[in-house]
Amino acid sequence: GNHLPPHQEHAQVLTADNATGFLCDDRVTCIPPSDLCNGVVTCPKGADEDTDMCSDLPNNLPGGLVFRCGNPQFWVFTDKKCNNFNDCGDCSDEIGPYAGCAPCGVYWWSCIPVDFQYCSCIPRCLCRDGRQHCYDWSDEYTCPKSLTC
After folding, report:
1. Cα distances (angstroms) measured from residue 128 to each of 9, 37, 107, 133, 144
2. What pLDDT, on a 0 to 100 scale, did the predictor assign at position 3?
3. Is 32 domain-assigned?
4. Most exposed residue of 5, 27, 67, 142, measured as fewest CB within 10 angstroms of its CB?
């Protein structure tokens, strides 16, 4: 017969918000990549915690679910890319041609952050809180006060 290579049956599928996801073994449920191999069963039959797949991360994951950071020793699940947080540690998941992220959204303020956890935007709720979050202090002097965090 024609056997699929391991894990090819778990094709990349689109989640509700049109992001790439993982198709569970019921062929219906699609889960976000970061729900894979986290010790919590999300798929009805547990395909997201499959021992073979989870034993050698990220090599045994479907390729479209993995984003390699600027330092190729590091990787993140694709749903952690362009989330305004520095998941790679070098901001390669937020800034630069490989990430391909859109500009900061309406709930974010664009600046060079002083906090390591952010890359090119800070949450607007941090504006005018009396603390420097941007190198140019624009979060305290320019950015309009927004929703509470």
Report:
1. 50, 39, 14, 10, 7
2. 42
3. yes
4. 5
